[in-house]
Amino acid sequence: MGMGEEIPARAQERPSMARNAVRLLVAPDSFKGSLTADEAARAMAEGARRACPSAHVTLLPVADGGEGTLDAIAASTGARAVWVEVTSSGGHRKKAYFLALPDGTAVIECAQAVGLPEAMASGQDVWHRATWGVGEMIRHALDLGHRRIAVTLGGSGTNDAGLGMLSALGVQLVDDAGEPVPPVPAAMHRIARADVAGLDARLRGVELLAVCDVENPLCGPQGATRVFGPQKGVDAADVERLDGEIARVAEICERAMGRLAASLAGAGAAGGLGFALYLLGARRLSGIDFVLDATQFDEHVRSADLVLTGEGRTDEQTAYGKAVAGVARRAQSHGVPVFCISGSIGPGAEALYDQGVTALFSITPGPMDLGEALANAPLLLRSAVENAMRAWRAGREGWVRSNE
């Protein structure tokens, strides 16, 4: 069965089905450091088939809007990759791609243009990095006629409040003398006005989505600069100053655009890129919900007998908008049990039981060095899934016999 292949509709009386008609939906996130979501799905499928050779297995790897989101969507939807040339956060030209979905949606991953690893390796400090390339990707999507554009906000190396993106889309930032000001943090103190007359008119009527699970506002104690700035290179001594400049410039942009956006949940995502998208009229959508909708998860899960999901580490953080929690909630709404099989199970993971996870499993059979676990992740995952499926199959078949 192919990736994302639709599962035929069937009777709702699960216990009376033939024993060889088990239908499994395999929907893991990546196991960071060892397996992509696609690789994890394939390893899970192999383990499941060892226990249930006749099972119908559908692979639907997922992501929560961060790294790997484009890969997960492409693997399950037949989306087309569109390669374009854009400006990196450090100012050089580079190749990046976005996805064109069959329904006409363009999915842009901001990290493709302004990702953190590339930014840190570029030699350009955070004061001179901008999100210009994200705006260029949006322009390319508009050129192709897309009327629905989703921007995933994870893994950025910028802290420019999205000014670079706005500039690429036609907003001009000027000083007191009316001279243009570059859209980088180092020059924010010069910005006196935002001229929106040149804003790309094609944005009118386009549905924009800010795909993220971050709830931080743009400024303040929980804002982009104070929470995420240091990991991007903002020195502790400069955090308050930059946060203040961003707050000032945000008010200028809000007046020019006619929208209040700085205080909205998610405005601080991707160094304030969420704020700039909100100024353009974007609405926020959970990363995992966006991925599940794009891959038609509900269509697949309603015909499944069991869902297999997992990630590198499952703990109390998983319940807050992570992929596994999203998968479990959707499956629960259709009455389908969920096995979560992860690299490790940490404190607080039991909270997932209330969100639809039926059982939690770790792939490590005992104490094991991290390097060894990472190196043997495919084998360990196959084995753990096989054991879980053998137990599930035994219980299921015993229940069927008792109800015949």
Automatic annotation (TrEMBL):
InterPro entries: Glyc_kinase_flavodox-like_fold, Glycerate_kinase, Glycerate_kinase_RE-like, Glycerate_kinase_sf. The keyword Transmembrane applies. It holds the Pfam family Gly_kinase. PANTHER family: GLYCERATE KINASE (PTHR21599:SF0). It comes from Alicyclobacillus vulcanalis. This is Glycerate kinase. The chain crosses the membrane at residues 260-280. One of its GO terms (biological process) is organic acid phosphorylation.
